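2024-03-11 09:14:02 INFO queue: dequeued item NAD(P)/FAD-dependent oxidoreductase, len=388
2024-03-11 09:14:02 INFO validating residues
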Amino acid sequence: MNYDVAIIGAGPAGGSAALHAARLGLKTVVLEEHAVVGEPVHCGECISDLAVKKLELNVPRKAIAMAVKGVRVIFPDRTAPVIDEAGYVLEKHEFEQWLAEEVINEGAELRLSSRVSGIERSSGQWKIDAGNNKVNSKILIDASGVQAVTSRILGLNQRFESVIGIQHEMLDVETDGYLDFYIWPKLAPKGYLWMIPKNGGRANVGLVTHEKNKAKTFLEEFIKAPEFRGKKIVKTFGGLIPSSGPLEKTVGEGLMLVGDAAGFTSPMFEGGSHLGLQSGKFAAEVAAKAVQANNFSRDFLQSYEELWKAEFPPYRKIVEGRNDLYSFSDEELNFIAKQLPQKLNGMNFFKKLVVGLKISAKRPSLIKKELFSSFRAFGYSQARFYGW
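2024-03-11 09:14:37 INFO prediction written
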């Protein structure tokens, strides 16, 4: 079968690309390796209200596990400032299945159990081998997640750095409607821990860390905290998350990479849904222009890269600041936390500068540890910077 666009993966990025491509009149097919869209679930399942409104998502009630008030950042001594910005905890499988239904309703095709094993470009088309499905397409959009299928098969990019995310779904966990993010280096080296509440007392309790072989041990230690001790574990799930920022090449001849496959996750708290959905939309818009112009060259598709670079936050600077934050000891983190206001939303540049100068005056040694760089990275964790 011949298509204008073939998309690898039916997650948020692939679903968004397919939805917008179909709406723009492109003959579209989605190749999903699993038998059921949205399973298994890999992520913490959060999305900001800002993202929902910006992308005009009419998310059905069944896909929303809880509406939340914002994010609370909990430091080692339990000092806990908050960022008030509304959002949602999703039933991620329901969300992705709803998105797939929208894709089909717009006229695109969805092929399940279609794991891509071969890709070749010949005579201006992609020839894609996905098990029983043999597909030809003018444009290929890789939304295959951390597998990064085209980078692996075509040798397009080097493998990105990743962290492991692992979590329990637990019962009878108390909440006041905030996402709780714990910066506790001893239990999540170069990462963080979380409690993400859902309705009925359920919660995702987990962590991300670079120390992949110790992640389960860290998680079991974390759930000994008073708020989780003795709570029933329903299931455990997780996976790898890109952590080094966008790949060097996100476009090629007739090719665009979106979502995790492009390395699009928030470096601070590893949120990826908003970035995936938006990058999928960008890719579809560029694909429509390419089909209209009958031009699938890398130079023509370069406008996709220009779009996301203009829209998304400065990854390299955030990664540098995140790494600087990881260098602080528990005692230093506690000291910094006590200088912060309880509500972090109102911290404009001037207020950040005042707080930074106050901390520097009391602890000059923190300047050498790139205090201001870590402040900047922390600021980019907000929804308006695609933090979640």
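2024-03-11 09:14:37 INFO annotate: Residues 273-293 form the longest helix (21 residues).
2024-03-11 09:14:38 INFO item closed
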